[in-house]
Amino acid sequence: MLCERCKRRPAVNEMVINEDGVPVTRKLCRTCAFEVMTGYVPVVKRCPTCQMTQHALRQTRKAGCTTCYTVFRDDLLKMTRQYQQGHDHHVGSIPNLLRTPDERIEERLVKLAGELEQAVEQEDYERAARIKKEMIQLKGQGEA
Ligand SMILES: [Zn+2]
Ligand SMILES: [Zn+2]
Predict the structure, then answer these.
(1) What distance in angstroms lies between residue 144's CA and the mean position of ligand 1's atoms?
(2) pLDDT tens-digit map of 81-107
(3) Does residue 106 lie in a domain region?
């Protein structure tokens, strides 16, 4: 069994150490146990699969393997949150004006069709022409 911290020397001690404020049980070699106990070297989180360190992860902002997602879960979550916050203002910035309400155009067309019928009945061809023109414009908008 190799030391869980350095992965180089054989583990001799099992001890509870603090990793980012969370107590975890680790099997450590004599050197690491001493370093951790004395606080001489800070405990560095390291992925046991790809050897990615917390420091490297913060620089690259990319997980090295799937195990990293478990080891650096909190760090990755923090990064994702920061990233999303920085891009929040891009979401929902499309002006409402660009969203043509098709239903309203439909409604207007039906109303205009009624008016057109009326105008023709009254032999008001000038008005009928105006209504027809408006209807064509509205249909163009609906298709766009
Ligand atoms: Zn060690
Ligand atoms: Zn990894």
Answers:
(1) 67
(2) 776 665 544 444 434 444 456 667 778
(3) yes
Non-local CB neighbours of 23 within 8 Å, separated by 6+ positions: 16, 17
Query: How far apart are the CA of 63 and the centre of ligand 1, in A?
Result: 24
pLDDT at residue number 44: 66
User: If you measure from the C-alpha of residue 35 to the centroid of ligand 2, how many angstroms do you get, rounded to a whole number?
Assistant: 24
Cα angle for residues 61, 78, 68 (degrees, 5° grid) = 55
User: What residue numbers bound the domain in which 121 lies?
Assistant: 98-143
Q: Is 44 left (phi over 0), alpha (psi -120 to 50) or beta?
A: beta
Asked if residue 118 is part of any domain, the answer here is yes
Q: What is the pLDDT of residue 115?
A: 94
Ligand nearest to the CA of 69: 2
What is d(CA 94, CA 75) in angstroms, rounded to the nearest whole number?
A: 32
